[in-house]
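Lecture 7 notes: from sequence to structure.
We start with the chain below.
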Amino acid sequence: MSRASILHVFPAVLLVLAGATDAPAKPLSVDGAATAYVMRDGYASIDPAELDQALMTLLGESGGRVEPGADLSAIEQALLLVDLEEQPLQRARYVLRYGQQTIDRVEVSFIDLQRYNLGPAIRLDAIDSYEAENVADAEAFGVGPHVAWRFVTQPTAKLSAMLLTASRREIADEEAAGRNCLPCACLSLDPIDDLADWSDPQTAAALPPTPYPSVVSTVHDDTVTDEIAPAAQALELAIAAGIAAQGADGLLWSFPERAGHSSPDPFVVVVIDRNLGQETMSDAVIGIAKVDKDHDQRWVRLSGGVFDGRVVQTISEAAGPLVKR
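Predicted structure tokens for the same chain:
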């Protein structure tokens, strides 16, 4: 696990990505900080034991000294759990923000993850273009609520991210319509491609080995298709951004060293757009806040999908805040 101290000043663009969430300024304990974080703003507590069981079912039972999910990061875990606990959506936007704070010499991870159902917005766009009688019904585009989850984890001797607490709430349509993700509305269909001056795309490295299926089967337009799991995309982005790497002791995440006091303010953001167009593919970015005055915000983008049984993805980068162009 990383050993980072987190800057208390968080760039405005990253705050816009997911909305502000205040955690206790001076937590008395790990448990106290974790509970306060997940129970704010009308969230309902979710039993972490039930979530652990869901993960165990996916990853497999422990059969030795090493847990199946020993290297599973807090970010991957959050994305896996939301997809395990929520109904499948064909077209969705994931917005994850990650913060970290040292409490009683323990590095505690704070994760806020929102998943927006873009199916209705895409259907309305299709109706505008092709007339209602030529567009499939709502179920064909994906029916389900917008949801928000919070998770708090800490490392242990056996696990990179042991789940301490979790909570969930639904986001009403009206609230979702008024939220901002990146410089665009959370329900906007504007592509990530238009938000920065991206470098020329390069072929992405092969999918890294994971304890969970990195390619999953989903139903898209009444057809079963293969997609890259959001958790695997987040891991790929982290590796490409240099904050995760395979080491002698397994997969290690090492976040940027930051000046200032330890704070749970988010400093890493992951946004994943799934199937906004006609093809089954995704576009995802990871954003990392400024480390110091000599380094700007930086973004890494991963685009692609599974075509004819092959994973095909490209990587590109950009610096500075994302801007709607």
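Points to note: The chain is about 20% helix and 35% strand. Residues 12-319 form one domain.
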